[in-house]
Write a structure and sequence with these properties.
By secondary structure, this protein is an alpha+beta fold. It contains eleven helices and 13 strands. Strands 5-4-13-12-11-10-9 form a seven-stranded antiparallel beta sheet, with helices on both faces. Strands 1-7-8-6 form a four-stranded antiparallel beta sheet, with helices on both faces.
Length: about 375
């Protein structure tokens, strides 16, 4: 995999200032996150022959924030890179999992009738394109059968998305979607595609008649008890949100999102936001194409509905766990059986780093074991 230029650390929060954005408004009530009885401040873990502490990990991996919740209580909260509790940090692909959760909320509301509905039922401009007839479910799975090349090899399709967004013109995302070609049958092959998360965001907005940020405020930010407003970057002033990335939020509020998902979409006061069983449906593979080890060569993960699913392995430590993963070291790890949520946001020196990823999952494993 080719390396991308090392991003300056201040580029991550500053994306919120460089692009048009829409506020995700918090609600009136804040969910408290009290300290857990057991602190993980002294947590250590082994990576090969090296033993690391939390501070070691954060320095090695340029981590700006690390939050570990057990039963909705803070077992560890730590900041770096001049970041703090009030800092917003712009998400990369972890936003995909937020967009998919909004799709679940729209299904529960009845704005989306069925996940097996065709996308062009909600977005008529897709008729006549390669996406005509593709179902909402196969967009959630990233199994559309539409051609897209995400890999950073100098020939990726993501350059087209970047160029489209750089125009800052309304409709550029939909124009790009309508220009793509069909590669095969839907539902047969997994193909990771950021632009399809943007499609999903556009679909939720069209189905609900709300901007994605406003709908997120109504169904996640308010009910989950966020402490601060968030931000969602737009294709242009008053345009579509970037459904695949671009959410700016405080670390604790990202943790509250993970906790909201872990608790099956039950908001403050017992309000049910997501369909019954959504967490376990969205957080696990539901077809052969997204099964463990089927996604890409050498990758043992599975895929749910815009969540990466961890293989159980011989120890079973990650059984049932799933994670949002974003470039440069962003994670939202949700482990329902262990009642654990972990959030990491970093500024890795390249967008993907196998060694850093291995250290991160070793940290997850050690934390789950320590909190048993």
């Amino acid at each position: 995999m080719n390396k991308t230029p090392e991003p300056p650390v201040d580029a991550f929060p500053d994306l919120n200032q460089a692009w048009p954005r829409r506020i995700i408004r918090r609600g009136d009530a804040v969910r408290m996150l009290p300290p857990h009885a057991r602190s993980l401040a002294e947590l250590t873990f082994d990576v090969g022959d090296v033993r690391l502490g939390v501070g070691d990990y954060m320095v090695r991996r340029r981590t700006s924030g690390l939050l570990i919740l057990k039963d909705g209580e803070i077992a560890l909260e730590r900041y770096g890179l001049d970041s703090g509790p009030e800092s917003l940090w712009t998400s990369f692909s972890t936003a995909k999992s937020i967009t998919a959760t909004l799709c679940g909320a729209a299904l529960h509301d009845g704005a989306i009738g069925n996940l097996d509905d065709r996308c062009d039922l909600y977005l008529p401009q897709l008729r006549g394109s390669a996406y005509q007839g593709v179902t909402v479910r196969n967009i959630l799975r990233m199994c559309s059968g539409v051609a897209w090349k995400e890999e950073d090899d100098g020939h990726s399709s993501t350059g087209g998305l970047s160029r489209a967004l750089a125009r800052r013109r309304a409709g550029t995302i939909m124009d790009l979607l309508c220009s793509l070609q069909r590669a095969g049958e839907q539902g047969v092959v997994f193909n990771y595609s950021t632009v399809e998360s943007c499609l999903l965001g556009a679909l939720v907005a069209a189905a609900t008649g709300r901007t994605l940020a406003d709908y997120c405020s109504e169904t996640i930010w308010g009910p989950a008890g966020m402490e601060a407003d968030g931000r969602w970057l737009l294709e242009c002033d008053d345009g579509l949100e970037w459904g695949g990335f671009g959410v700016g939020a405080r670390l604790r509020d990202v943790g509250r999102f993970g906790q909201f998902v872990l608790e099956n979409g039950e908001g403050l006061g017992g309000r049910q936001i997501l369909p019954p069983g959504w967490r376990d449906l969205a957080g696990q593979p539901d077809c052969a194409a997204t099964g463990f080890g089927r996604l890409m060569p050498g990758n043992p993960l599975g895929y749910g509905y815009q969540w990466w699913v961890l293989p159980h392995g011989p120890t079973g430590i990650h059984a049932g766990a799933f994670s949002a993963i974003g470039s440069f070291g962003q994670y939202i790890y949700v482990h329902p059986a262990a009642h654990v949520v972990m959030v990491i946001r970093s500024a890795w020196r390249q967008h993907d780093d196998n060694d850093a990823g291995a250290e991160t999952f070793a940290l997850f494993r050690a934390a789950v074991l320590a909190l048993r």
